[in-house]
Amino acid sequence: MLIDGGPAGTWERVLRPRLNALGRPLEAVCVTHLDADHIAGVLGLLATNVRAVKDDGLAPPFEVRRLWFNGLDLLRAPLLSTADAVAAASYAQGRDLMTHARQLRLEGNAPFGGPLTAGKQAELDGLTVTVVTPHEKALHRLAGAWRAKLPEDPAVTGAGFTDQSIPNLSSITLYLAGHGRTVLLTGDARGDDILEGLSIAGLSASGKTHVDVLKLPHHGSANNVAEEFFAAVQADHYVISADGTHGHPSRDTLRWLVESRPSDAGFTVHVTNPISHVHDTLADLQRGRRLEVSIGRGAVIELATRPGPDRLPDRTADHAPYGGSYGRVDIGQTGAE
Ligand SMILES: [Zn+2]
Q1: Which DSSP letter does residue 12 get?
Q2: Which helix (H) or strand (E) holds 168?
Q3: pLDDT in tens, 17-32
Q4: How do beta strands 29-30 and 2-3 pair?
Q5: Ligand 1 center–CA 242 separation, angstroms
Q6: What does the pLDDT look like over 213-229, one tens digit per residue?
Q7: How many whole angstroms from 59 Cα to the centroid of ligand 1?
Q8: Which CATH architecture describes the domain 2-331?
Q9: How far apart are CA 134 and CA 117, in angstroms?
Q10: How many CB atoms sit inside 10 A of residue 205's CB?
Q11: Count of CA atoms in the C-beta half-sphere (13 A) of 284
């Protein structure tokens, strides 16, 4: 499964060689939302396949079985009502995505019976996929005139969760469970929406969730999380996909994350790219803690059940042969914004 494809350039630089090395079909590709830094790499992948099929009459070089994406019909109204050129560009990319998917005859959201909304579930080759965000009501509200009320409504603007981007508020969060392991992939969703979705999906016990891997929302922006998010969602491996653009990940986010855990808790923070303020902040936070830090070297986290203390080894992608079974999370250098 591939969740998002990174910004322009990621397809040729990182994603294409990685998929070539893996050499197996993608059961599902999920585009969490319309922003260019998530959709561009997937467009590169699908456009490569379309060129091979349409122009050269060949089989697609990178087999993709299904595309999960909350279609433009739900997002058209807010995007067209804004004068924001970035949103307009995102809309055009979303339209291209739909065109490519039709040309390649990809199955869409059928396993979920329609748009991916909180609480829906699908089975995929031994993996249970549960949608955590967006909430169905939020998606429909976003698609209508209700947008104008967003900033003043305390129900949707919780303290500390200040991201108001329309595409981000519709971002898909997926909870994956299989072989006794769990992964929470949050796109650019907002922390309070994720907490609500975990509750709707029955994935939080007394308001708390523990996963093997948490991909932080919105590249570690402090606008999408608060201390309460990290108190409620904890992980053995925290992954931050960012390259320092917009100050992501934020120093506050790193501090909230680390300080949410007792000093003797063993966990690892993975950051996809070297960023000086991240290096310094995490080095400070590491003092007196068992926190491990991995910056800019990629990793493969094994999720297959294995006995022994090294059941979740971190290794650089270059040294990790593909085992051919379910249960790995590849952390590349694909982050942006
Ligand atoms: Zn993003």
Answers
A1: I
A2: helix 166-169
A3: 999 999 999 999 999 9
A4: parallel
A5: 9
A6: 999 999 999 999 999 99
A7: 32
A8: 4-Layer Sandwich (3.60)
A9: 5
A10: 9
A11: 10
